[in-house]
Amino acid sequence: xxxxxxxxxxxxSIFFGFPxxxxxxxxxxxxxxWNLKTDKNYFPTVTILVPTYNEAEIIDFKLENLKxxxxxxxxxxxxxVDSGSQDSTLEKIEKFLRNNPSVxxxxxxxxxxxxxxxxxxxxxxxxxxxxxxVSDADCFLLDDVLEKSLKYLADPTIGAIVGRExxxxxxxxxxxxxxxxxxxxxxxxxxxxxxxYSTIIFEGGFSAYKRDCLEKFDSETGCxxxxxxxxxxxxxxRTILIxxxxxxxxxPTTWNGKITIKIRRGSQLVQIWTKCLMYLLRKxxxxxxxxxxxxxxxxxxxxxxxxxxxxxxxxVILQYPLLLFGIIFVLIVPTTRNLLVETVQNNVIxxxxxxSLILKRRFVIWQKADESRQELTRExxxxxxLI
Length: 387
What we know:
alpha/beta; single chain; 13 helices; globular
């Protein structure tokens, strides 16, 4: 056996083996009971922040969804912060409020669009709740999401919670099927991390923060959700995924639409885990090393191993052409093919994001996924009892 083949096998074992081992370990932890002091009678005041920008095609759906929330009206404040929409978003909000006088949503207007983090921080100045929640305009909540999730914030060790994303159109195309499979794997890992200590992978569909743990939403990395969760953890408070606090959204049906989302998210994740690496080297990272080192390796170092593996694979196949048949066999099986496609795609994006970070070039941070919004219909949302 040649040295080149041995190196190829070692790199392949690390690249594919480590994510599998971490997934199995976190899967085990995710099945363990919570060690928390929850309180179903915990009813704090809540402010929900909804950032908007050119949401005319879906804003009526979002407003109807928010109206359905089951929570004492005197304890809830809903702030719609608009960042200079150039379509009929504001007109539709005003019409909805006229037609629903019992709804006490408040509209806050930014004169200039500076990004989602800035919009949330602008709205935060007007928030009065003990709990600050965020929900994006294209994400829809179950009516009992506050009742199911806020009881976890009664525990004094918990600083923030995030919901679990469910794709509304998982069977539309191979793109949505692959994404649904990927999301289920990631949710299991994030739940395992939550039960061990914390997950900092937050999403804008539904999250909630204790006000005394939230100075501002992170704008340094351009990742308002995950960056903010990291800041909460650095204050020695836990941030956890609540699986029953589901929120729903549609996903692009084409590969191009998917890549737009993945590139933005990959850029954010590389920046966050690189920041964690800096904290770790300075011995100031609060997140446990078991989680931090694993995630840093997966998001920063494994993409580099991937690039080496691809390069060496070319020469190994030239020497051992029969290996090509083994690769083809793996690609024939749908499940392994889908996982391999997702793995390769995600690592290419992470590698590109890492290179961009080194070159100090950044992707556009708040760009709407128009294709996924086109999937949102009244019929689909009514089918899931969201409006």
